[in-house]
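Next comes this protein.

***
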Amino acid sequence: MMLSGWGGEAVPERERIIDWRAPSLKFGVGATREIGFAVRSAGITSVLLVTDPVLASLGLPARVAKSIEQEGIEVTVFDRARVEPTDESCAEAARELASLQVDGYVGLGGGSSIDTAKMLNLLLSHPGRPVRDYLNAPIGAGAPVPGPLKPLVAVPTTAGSGSECTAMVALGVTGLNVKTGISDPRLLPALALVDPANTLSLPPAVTAASGYDVLTHACESYTARAFDRRPAYATPEDRPLYIGANPISDVWAEQALSLVGRYLRRAVLNPDDLEARTGMSRAASFAGMGFGNAGTHIPHACAYPVAGLVREYRPRGYEVEHAMVPHGAAVVSTAAAAFEFTYPTAPERHLRAAELLGANLDGVTGANGSDVLPATLRSIVADTGGPAGLGDFGYTAKDLPELVAGALKQRRLLVCCPRDVAPADLHRVLAGSMTG
């Protein structure tokens, strides 16, 4: 689409429409007790409950299943969701459950369990198509979900991914040493049921890594390329889920940043602090509502190869049998350098984000404030025992070419960056993140 400028020249028309999505939300301490009512209210008569082995060993899935069954709903439990799921782990689970007939899903756990539930909903509702067809281009074909999915109730037990409020999943890609996503409006849960009490059992290291994901979600969506700085889309169908920073998502991002600034340190250092847990659960869902519409950019683009190329690193607090960099640790490890790069596009937004996180802006101006948000992020990570840099995960300068190549594949994220991103820019961000 083109408009005429003052001199009669053709100028491209900018996007003007905000297309914003979020699920219904039930929030509060004790909300899990209402899961049976919520499932029945969604019209579900049989449900697949998806969770992970660690959570299953703690007994929560069994209690949730009993609560649902008391409403006369048949429950099948799948308790082998992989921490940091892959295309193959989801495909294998779908093959195992191929004969199952249910009319709804419950995802109970962290983002890994909720994302696995979303994938099983897709693969069992529309069998026969490989996962890679749905993966975002250029890693996959970016095929749309071919039809309606069953209602999904998302019950997070971490305060991190915000997957309960988003229409996307994140998956490792077997054989490519990279992660990517699937984005489609049909993946949005019907209900996010958020009970902060479910996060009380999280170890400090898991609380911290989950919180870093919230922190970067909010910062990235708040600083993303604005929706009205993008060319107009030819049709409504062409408009992506990640539309860019916009006035609606900004409200949620600002709320999330303020909550993280107040409560992340407390939640990590005082695990039984229910007020802090409640604040971080709010922050996670609010940030999900923000980034799930505005998008993320460089830190998440870099995080996918950081997670995918890991060789031997085993994180504290996680019971896993494979090398893994927790997603939140991966994203925050490059965040400071990334926001130094994006600062010139909107100094006021970067400074406001830092202020909401607790930074003192006395004497700070746009001209001298480029290091304020990076310093604020580094302080929060240091206070909560997080990674000092990519070197903590075993990476060295020799890994930079592969890390850059992996980040460049995250096209849907990099277009959200407020600056055009070249390979040299990603190299600079990743190199600057090796030691913090």
In short: The longest helix spans residues 247-269.
